[in-house]
């Protein structure tokens, strides 16, 4: 397990009542995901999804009563900076499911780049991993109202994104 994943787990322990993380994906689930999307996840992303298959830290505006109410979970997730699960990524990539803002494959055709949705923001936008080059893996604010040429790189790598997310307890720069 990498240092950054240990740091995430430590923060999840500290924010236990605000932690909404899924159980990690299996190696075969990750392999199947990579095969379906025809990509190879960088080591930190693989480690992240092995540790937790998506999830989030709820912000501190939620009451303890809300955080403990199972019926509130979907609303809390929708209004958080939420890391998509592998299945949610595939659904969003196929322009299906709950966490879609635009047709990602259409944007790929326009730009010639690979975009993999990673986070559904509390502003109801998507952060994408630009997966065209595994050596450079920026995280981009993919606003559905903007042409991809105007999308903004927020983080130079998934590691940088995850470090910021952990340090700011889920409150990251999203635009």
Oligomer: single chain
**H/E order of the elements?**
HEHHEHHEHHEEEEH
Strand content: 15-25%
Largest beta sheet: strand ordering = 3-4-5-6-7
**How many beta-strand segments?**
7
- Distinct helical segment count: 8
Short description:
With 175 residues, the protein is an alpha+beta fold. It has 8 helices and 7 strands.
Walk me through what this model shows:
With 175 residues, the chain is α+β, with helices and mostly antiparallel strands. The protein is built from eight helices and seven strands; from the N terminus they run H-E-H-H-E-H-H-E-H-H-E-E-E-E-H. It has helices at residues 3-14, 27-37, 43-51, 64-68, 73-78, 86-93, 104-111, 158-167, and strands at residues 19-21, 55-57, 82-83, 115-120, 126-130, 139-142, 152-155. Strands 3-4-5-6-7 form a five-stranded antiparallel β-sheet. A two-stranded antiparallel ribbon has the order 1-2. A hairpin with a 5-residue loop joins strand 4 and strand 5. The radius of gyration is 15 Å and the shape is globular. The mean pLDDT is 91.
